[in-house]
């Protein structure tokens, strides 16, 4: 029987540990504040932002919500970020992505000071991770590491294969697995003989962005499979990049969707907010 990795439970444990830390800070008169900026009202973004605010409330972090109209100019957004950079009572700044097309996302991310970059998207944060220095780490990949560690899955010496090379998941995931002494391969849309590569994996991380794309033909028997995807299937049910029903009896451990990686992203964001107090 495969272990179904319970991201909901593990994320709850992390949030409870953070709540405890925050209450100690509070008793010392220290308040942690996260500024959350959303431009426009993309429904998916509104759900994510709402969940982030709820998590802040649970843990005891103050959240400042900035809900800006779709027509906000790049200059207006940059001015707000610069103002929040300077505010001593703001520890973390999060700009929900995607932004409207008329705003340069890279420029916005680069304008957040690295000390408040709780998403870990700033080039300085990414660069620090790549050379093993301290800095904020992108939340989804650090959540994957926590899922593995807290499920007792050893990374050291293992063949770790990542499908997907995005800046916010695939690439930071590779550096984190490397930091844990895994042997790391990144596959992407131009990889030849994808199945041949993925079947080498002891730990397969799937962030490909295609619903139920990975079936058991891509997986070595007994491998650990982490599914970063989230989609709606033909019946409007949530599903991942992995065909769960096809693979569950073939693997030693797997994350479900929903209830796997998803809840970990917010838990790790909260972790970064608590860490931000030390920067
Ligand atoms: N949009 C989708 N995921 C994320 C995330 O982790 N952070 C931000 N800021 N925007 C997102």
TrEMBL record:
GO biological process, one term: tetrahydrofolate interconversion
Chain residues that bind NADP(+): 164-166, 230
Annotated GO MF terms: methenyltetrahydrofolate cyclohydrolase activity; methylenetetrahydrofolate dehydrogenase (NADP+) activity
Keywords tagged on the record: Amino-acid biosynthesis, Histidine biosynthesis, Hydrolase, Methionine biosynthesis, Multifunctional enzyme, NADP, One-carbon metabolism, Oxidoreductase, Purine biosynthesis
InterPro entries in the record: Aminoacid_DH-like_N_sf, NAD(P)-bd_dom_sf, THF_DH/CycHdrlase, THF_DH/CycHdrlase_cat_dom, THF_DH/CycHdrlase_CS, THF_DH/CycHdrlase_NAD-bd_dom
Pathway: One-carbon metabolism; tetrahydrofolate interconversion
Coiled-coil region: none
EC number(s) given by UniProt: 1.5.1.5, 3.5.4.9
Catalytic activity: (6R)-5,10-methylene-5,6,7,8-tetrahydrofolate + NADP(+) = (6R)-5,10-methenyltetrahydrofolate + NADPH; (6R)-5,10-methenyltetrahydrofolate + H2O = (6R)-10-formyltetrahydrofolate + H(+)
SUPFAM superfamilies reported for this sequence: Aminoacid dehydrogenase-like, N-terminal domain, NAD(P)-binding Rossmann-fold domains
Residue span(s) of domain Tetrahydrofolate dehydrogenase/cyclohydrolase NAD(P)-binding: 138-278
Pfam families named among the record's database cross-references: THF_DHG_CYH, THF_DHG_CYH_C
Gene Ontology cellular component list: cytosol
All copies of domain Tetrahydrofolate dehydrogenase/cyclohydrolase catalytic, residue ranges: 5-119
Keyword presence, NADP: yes
NCBIfam families named in the record: PRK10792.1, PRK14186.1
HAMAP family: THF_DHG_CYH
Record function comment: Catalyzes the oxidation of 5,10-methylenetetrahydrofolate to 5,10-methenyltetrahydrofolate and then the hydrolysis of 5,10-methenyltetrahydrofolate to 10-formyltetrahydrofolate.
Subunit structure: Homodimer.
Family affiliation: Belongs to the tetrahydrofolate dehydrogenase/cyclohydrolase family.
Protein known as: Bifunctional protein FolD
Organism: Anaerocolumna sedimenticola
């Amino acid at each position: 029987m495969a272990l179904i990795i319970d991201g909901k439970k593990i994320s709850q444990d992390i949030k409870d540990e953070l709540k405890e830390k925050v209450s100690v800070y509070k008793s010392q008169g220290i308040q942690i504040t996260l500024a959350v900026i959303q431009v426009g009202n993309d429904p998916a973004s509104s759900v994510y932002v709402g969940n982030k605010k709820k998590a802040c409330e649970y843990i005891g972090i103050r959240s400042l919500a900035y809900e800006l109209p779709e027509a906000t100019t790049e200059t207006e957004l940059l001015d707000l970020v610069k103002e929040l950079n300077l505010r001593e009572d703001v520890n973390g700044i999060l700009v929900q992505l995607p932004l409207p097309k008329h705003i340069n996302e890279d420029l916005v991310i680069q304008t957040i000071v690295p000390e408040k970059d709780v998403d870990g998207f700033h080039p300085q944060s990414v660069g620090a991770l790549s050379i093993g220095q301290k800095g904020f780490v992108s939340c989804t990949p650090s959540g994957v590491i926590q899922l593995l560690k807290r499920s007792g899955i050893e990374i050291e010496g293992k063949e770790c294969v990542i499908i997907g090379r995005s800046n916010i998941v695939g690439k930071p995931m590779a550096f984190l697995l490397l930091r844990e002494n895994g042997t790391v391969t990144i596959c992407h849309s131009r990889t030849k003989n994808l199945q041949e590569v993925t079947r080498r994996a002891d730990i397969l991380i799937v962030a490909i962005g295609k619903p139920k794309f990975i079936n058991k033909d891509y997986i070595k028997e007994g491998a650990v499979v982490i599914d970063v995807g989230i989609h709606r299937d033909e019946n409007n049910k949530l599903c991942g990049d992995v065909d769960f029903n096809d693979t569950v009896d073939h693997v030693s451990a797997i994350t479900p969707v929903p209830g796997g990686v998803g809840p970990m992203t917010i838990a790790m964001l909260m972790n970064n907010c608590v860490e931000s107090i030390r920067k």
